[in-house]
Design brief:
With 794 residues, the chain is mainly beta. It has 6 helices and 40 strands. A hairpin with a 2-residue loop joins strand 28 and strand 29. The N terminus is likely disordered.
């Protein structure tokens, strides 16, 4: 491992050489509410993602914070919209599918079949981890504050925070009555309404209650059925806080949410001209498979007789007990979540209603299928099941204002993901129950020592012990149209696998304040990602198989992929300048991932299979955040300049149709060492300006949001057809506000220049064709739309 001094020197040089580049290209580290005439400087921002309230400008970690109003101003309606406002974050779509999360160029690429895999980014609600398989936060509502901690958060972030933390802080009970109603509508059919209320019930009991309904269209149309893709969600959250005594309080929470979608989430963006699905005489060409539209980048149509749907139902509860014992506070957090899941997906997004018969005829002709076997066909693949998690945390904190303060805790979680998958079609049928279990036991501690007014030391350690299990049962029942990958007419396979491992991780930081308003820091973090099974794998053998092929499959898939280990170095500057009118924060980092759990699709199979393998990776870069508030003007400028690459990834699967000249060897593999990580644009920039113009009867509020993203491959295999080129977006708004600032009506136009772009692109269908087939997911705002929103506060 390289020395900290060497990396600190490199990072310091990186800061000095990058400031000028970023000065004209730098969302804000802490975005504020839309301009209010009463606000004259940058407000002091409090973050809670590190398990206690802390001032953003005084902690040695790069972070972005968006207020409730900033989320509304930027029209952040689903998780992937954070891409536009926090440059270091990259999220690949949220519509009818699992979200691959990424921070600083480090991301996962898992699909719905890869259950139980940690994301690398810990998603939390009020500090409680949300399972990576859950869709609970895909729709962003009920948010009082959104916090993003960039880079590994080993000590306090937990087992899933190898790349960072995103924490949703929801509306809390209040001691004074507060009420709000917000509504939104757009020209393309989006509707949103939410209500919030909080206040005292008695002098010892307070409450908060929120509810919402949201309908979001996506720019995809099925030309066969006329269905336009859309998502619909509604839910409510209630909290009660009991002041049991002067030193004891209890807060209980209940949450219910329903999210549904209808229509496709992916559409064909590229297919090698002249290609066929399968091969003649059964081969199907583009005119047969994809009639009624032109395949190409920017396509927003598909043609299929089927309609894809999804349904996710969340039921969550928690209880937080705080007991103050002099300078100590003991906190107990008990949480339970359960999400029911159901979704269907079109097998190939194709249109030919007779291809099942064509396949049967072809297979019979070449002697690969007994003519007496009746094989039903369905164009849909379905998955249904649930994700449940119970967690318990005990935390003991000393007074943070003391020269020496500490935080220690115990954490336990028990998660189960249970999924049943049915795919009843001739060439690759499947019916299986897939169960992943994860138990985590952790103990952690962190101390902060203020040597004097200028010098502070921070250090922490955490020990994690993980026990993972994988139970899979594959069923084969031709009479019922259920088949598995082991061969037609065979019996079922059941595998029960388990593993356990531990890891000691931690962090250390030094802070120095040359002046009252400037803080510099340097930190080192040792992190990890736990072992994992490749749960998307479909077994072709029963346990105990001793054939050469069977032993090879067992050696590859019956053992968990090794842990990922992380060494991260960061130096930073946080400053509050111009009499508190300006904050300017800067961070440079270098993070090395040893045993990085790379995820890539093997498209040599009939349907792409996810490969999970250990590789080497590193990311380095500079982040800058500027926020200016003076009088009626607010402006923010944020940028991330990131270089994320594989350092060692030999033997990676080639992309479809890749030639020897393009780096694919005779065995069908390539060397990705030195190649960029997927979904990791080198430069992302966001700028926002909000200007309030007071009039005698009302305030006029004009706003603009600009974002830029450089080009990036959306798949690790470097498939050139998954490359999203650089693009920029512009949003404009004009609002009218009452003089008491309690009601605002805003008209807005998003994506003014009508710039199409993809949030995700996949090539896992290509193995069934003779060419390179790429499907893509257009972003919600990949076409221009306009609307109005109204907000009323009581």
């Amino acid at each position: 491992m390289r020395t900290f001094a060497k990396h600190a020197a490199r990072l310091s040089m990186g800061i000095s050489t990058s400031v000028l580049a970023l000065a004209v290209a730098a969302p804000a580290m802490a975005q504020q509410a839309p301009a209010q005439t009463g606000a004259k400087d940058t407000a002091e921002i409090i973050v809670t993602a590190q398990k206690r309230p802390e001032k953003l400008q005084e902690i040695p970690v790069a972070a972005a914070v968006l207020s409730q109003a900033a989320v509304a101003q930027a029209h952040v309606v689903d998780l992937s919209d954070i891409n536009r406002v926090v440059p270091s974050v990259e999220l690949k779509g949220t519509f009818n599918g699992r979200v691959p999360y990424g921070i600083r160029g480090i991301s996962t690429n898992a699909n719905e079949g890869a259950i139980g895999l940690t994301s690398g980014v810990s998603i939390q609600v009020d500090g409680v981890p949300v399972p990576a398989d859950s869709f609970a936060v895909n729709t962003i509502t009920d948010v009082a504050q959104l916090e993003v901690l960039k880079g590994p958060q080993a000590t306090l972030g937990g087992r899933t925070a190898s790349a960072g933390v995103i924490n949703f802080v929801t509306v809390a009970p209040s001691t004074t009555p507060q009420y709000a109603v917000n509504a939104l509508t757009t020209n393309d059919g989006e509707w949103h309404i939410d209500g919030r209320a909080s206040g005292p019930i008695t002098d010892k009991v307070s409450y908060s209650l929120t509810g919402y309904y949201q309908r979001t269209p996506y720019p995809i149309t099925n030309v066969t059925t006329g269905v336009k893709s859309r998502a619909e969600s509604y839910g409510t959250r209630a909290k009660l806080k009991f002041e049991l005594s002067d030193n004891l309080d209890l807060q209980v929470m209940g949450h219910y949410a329903m999210s549904k979608s209808k229509g496709a989430n992916f559409i064909v963006q590229y297919w090698t001209p002249g290609s066929f699905f399968f091969a003649p005489p059964v081969g199907l060409d583009a005119a047969t498979m994809y009639p009624g539209y032109t395949i190409g980048y920017g396509n927003t149509k598909l043609s299929t007789h089927t309609t894809m749907v999804s349904r996710y139902e969340d039921k969550d509860t928690s209880a937080v007990l705080n007991w103050r014992l002099g300078d100590l506070t003991l906190t107990s957090t008990t949480a339970y979540s359960h999400e029911g899941q159901y979704q269907t997906q079109d097998t190939f997004l194709g249109n030919d209603p007779n291809w099942a018969l064509k396949f049967e005829t072809f297979l019979n002709a070449i002697g690969q299928l007994p003519s007496s076997m009746v094989l039903p066909y369905s164009n849909l693949q379905s998955a249904q099941g649930y994700v449940s998690q119970t967690s318990q945390e005990f935390k003991l904190a000393t007074d943070a204002k003391k020269p020496l303060s500490a935080l220690v805790g115990l954490f336990y979680s028990d998660m189960t993901v249970n999924q049943y998958v049915l795919r009843a079609w001739t060439l690759n049928p499947l019916a299986k129950t897939n169960i992943s279990t994860t138990k985590n036991y952790s103990i952690y501690g962190r101390a902060t020592a203020h040597v004097n007014d200028r010098l502070t030391f921070v250090g922490g350690l955490r020990y994690n012990w993980d026990k993972i299990g994988w139970n899979v049962a594959q069923y084969f029942n031709p009479a019922a149209g259920q088949y598995g990958s082991g061969g037609f007419g065979q019996g079922g396979y059941t595998w029960n696998l388990s593993d356990s491992s531990g890891a000691l991780v931690g962090d250390a930081a030094i802070q120095f304040k040359p002046t009252r308003d400037i803080m510099t820091y340097a930190s080192y973090t040792r992190g990890y990602k736990p072992k994992a099974f490749n749960t998307v794998h479909d077994w072709s053998i029963a346990p105990g198989n001793t054939t050469a092929a069977g032993l090879a499959e067992i050696a590859t898939f019956a053992k968990a992929v090794a842990q990922e280990h992380i060494d991260s170095f960061e130096v930073g500057l946080k400053s509050t300048l111009l009499d508190r009118h300006l904050t300017f924060n800067l961070a440079a980092f270098y993070t090395n991932y040893s045993g990085y759990q790379a995820q890539i699709f093997d498209t040599s199979k009939l349907v792409g299979v996810l490969i999970l393998a250990n590789a080497g990776a590193r990311t380095q870069g500079v982040e800058a955040d500027l926020n200016y508030v003076k009088g009626n003007t607010r402006a923010s400028l944020s940028a991330a300049l990131i270089d994320a690459k594989f350092t060692n990834f030999k033997g990676a699967v080639c992309w479809p149709t890749q030639t020897t000249a393009q780096g694919c060897d005779a065995s069908g593999t390539q060397d990705l060492s030195g190649k960029p990580m997927p979904a990791s644009p080198k430069l992302k920039v966001n700028a926002q300006i909000v200007q309030t113009i007071p009039f005698e009867k009302f305030n006029l509020i004009a706003g603009t949001n600009l974002s830029y993203r450089s080009g990036t491959y959306l798949q690790a295999n470097q498939n050139p057809q998954t490359f999203q080129s650089a693009f920029g977006l512009m949003d404009l708004s004009l609002g009218f506000q009452t003089k008491d600032e309690k009601a605002t009506l805003t008209f807005f136009v998003n994506n003014v220049t009508d710039r199409f772009y993809l949030t995700n692109a996949e090539d896992f269908f290509a193995g069934a064709t003779t060419g390179n087939l790429v499907i893509g997911q257009p972003a919600r705002d990949s076409s221009r739309y306009f609307g109005a929103r109204v907000g009323i506060n009581f």
